[in-house]
Amino acid sequence: MNGMKTIFSADHLLHQSPGELIFGEFLPAFEKPERAELVLGRVKEVGLGEIRPPESFPVSAITRVHAPGLVALLQSAQAEWEGLGRTGAAYPYTWMSRGMREDRVPAGLDGRLAYYSFDCGTPITKTSWQAIKSSVDVALSGVALLNSGERGAFSLCRPPGHHAGADHYGGYCFLNNAAIAAQKLLDDGAKRVAILDVDYHHGNGTQQIFYRRDDVLLVSLHGHPDQEYPYLLGWEDEIGAGAGEGFNLNFPLRWGTAWPEWSAALEAGLKRITAYGADAVVVSLGVDTYKDDPISHFLLEHEHFTQMGARIASLRKPVLFVMEGGYAVAEIGINAVNVLTGFEGA
Amino acid sequence: MNGMKTIFSADHLLHQSPGELIFGEFLPAFEKPERAELVLGRVKEVGLGEIRPPESFPVSAITRVHAPGLVALLQSAQAEWEGLGRTGAAYPYTWMSRGMREDRVPAGLDGRLAYYSFDCGTPITKTSWQAIKSSVDVALSGVALLNSGERGAFSLCRPPGHHAGADHYGGYCFLNNAAIAAQKLLDDGAKRVAILDVDYHHGNGTQQIFYRRDDVLLVSLHGHPDQEYPYLLGWEDEIGAGAGEGFNLNFPLRWGTAWPEWSAALEAGLKRITAYGADAVVVSLGVDTYKDDPISHFLLEHEHFTQMGARIASLRKPVLFVMEGGYAVAEIGINAVNVLTGFEGA
Ligand SMILES: [Zn+2]
Ligand SMILES: [Zn+2]
């Protein structure tokens, strides 16, 4: 097969959330293993290209963008949790706010869960770490494909990553696969990398990681913070700071946004990426922009995902697609793979 | 009766939490109406003194220390929640963390819940606002008693308040009754007010409100942030800032702290209050330092609460006792009232 290669690890099955507190109810998790399996099934169904397992990369590739204390917590939390006589997955129950200490990490488990997280929908189970680490490896193995000369590659990551910042996790995301991949591209020789985040939700973690840097440009199209998770980041006036000023571009869009408005924002984003002169592009590929997604409010249809892929191909850059969100489970495979075939066919 | 007067409102019954996510489980709330009823029963049993309903004070007394946006949210959240087609109490599901916007409040309900809160154990029910407002009135009516010349008064507040900051709620607390009372004392003519927080948990909200001010001294004895909620504030190196430098005194104490160590910290705190020359003292009276409290780890016994009251009396200042935490429900009345009779008998 000569098509786009997909990197996939069955280790993702090792992370399964017992549930989340959302809208006042403790509900079954929206972010579930079937998601990745359905995308994989569709990759096979359309014969996209070879499917490969990831190589294993050292944790040092992770700590290039994440705080060591966060990485350590993800590895030890569940054992510490059991050590306190508790059962089930490790959940935080309190969080940071204005006036609290950012400069001092409490020693205890509940304190570190509070310090390093920002929501109660991202529990750490006994086997989550292996899934989280393999998801990073899936992203990094995609980088290796680009380095070997591939025009495009698909890192079928799960758990997703774009909500995870340098020193906090949440929004179903523990480590920021796309950000780790972008950093690896730089460390392997790229001078400038663009991240295009097309997930329905703002890539708050990616923004936080690169906000003061000019070697990574973030372009994010997403539900407006006045209406949509994560609410506390993603406005258009967040343009980067310090050396990073001008290298963060947010397109907050209102509920009900359909393809004409969405694709106009995409064109503006692509134009910015072209002007930036990126050596490579990482796409945070969420397909929760789909009209029937259960937790989202945009109106994209199947064919728009194909067009999205074609437009991304027009950049004429090496592109790594990193799987993020998308919760209309039955349709997630079709929409994600439509982006890839649209890219390949352009 | 000539003893200490108690201010109490049955409106507290209008706030009843449907439950909280804590230690990974959605559990019945620890902060429940029986708490106040048991304290009231004990006040009657020992014949402490007259029991009075509160007067009603204008909301402007609240916005002297709290953000208007927070106060508005507490009033409207449940109606907005129902307007979104949801049932039950209003819970946030995501929160602030490093790198998120502190300068911009999102317009939507979930965004404002995220912005203005820091935990998932403090739901807003349909009738919570009346309980919250009456709890503030109970505190302010206690201030009126001190202004009229009483040596001491007991504001039997519920819900409690000391975890609520200027612009956030959490920890079973919505508005900071003790802080609002301290501000009222200043507005009514006091030059300096000391707040002595003897609750098991750090008075993070009170600290945040007055951290940059020298007209309110906070002395807090509490579980160490390395071990105890709220984890992200309460270290000994938090001494105040700007004009407030030197006017915040934390005594973080380890699990297992018993009376000898606890009372030594109290003596140091009382010495500081005396040196400060406060015109009046507000005591954030939590009795979760009791040895059998279900969520705490100090070892105080019944008679230590009596001694605590006597030591507070040694300040020879007007003292307003404001009820905060304490969850060993059967014992909470005995311990709270022991502090008051200890004060009266000294
Ligand atoms: Zn998403
Ligand atoms: Zn307490």
From TrEMBL, chains A, B:
<protein>
    <submittedName>
        <fullName>Acetylpolyamine amidohydrolase</fullName>
    </submittedName>
</protein>
<keyword id="KW-0862">Zinc</keyword>
<dbReference type="InterPro" id="IPR023696">
    <property type="entry name" value="Ureohydrolase_dom_sf"/>
</dbReference>
<keyword id="KW-0479">Metal-binding</keyword>
<feature type="domain" description="Histone deacetylase">
    <location>
        <begin position="31"/>
        <end position="337"/>
    </location>
</feature>
<comment type="similarity">
    <text>Belongs to the histone deacetylase family.</text>
</comment>
<dbReference type="InterPro" id="IPR000286">
    <property type="entry name" value="HDACs"/>
</dbReference>
<dbReference type="InterPro" id="IPR037138">
    <property type="entry name" value="His_deacetylse_dom_sf"/>
</dbReference>
<dbReference type="InterPro" id="IPR023801">
    <property type="entry name" value="His_deacetylse_dom"/>
</dbReference>
<keyword id="KW-0378">Hydrolase</keyword>
<dbReference type="Pfam" id="PF00850">
    <property type="entry name" value="Hist_deacetyl"/>
</dbReference>
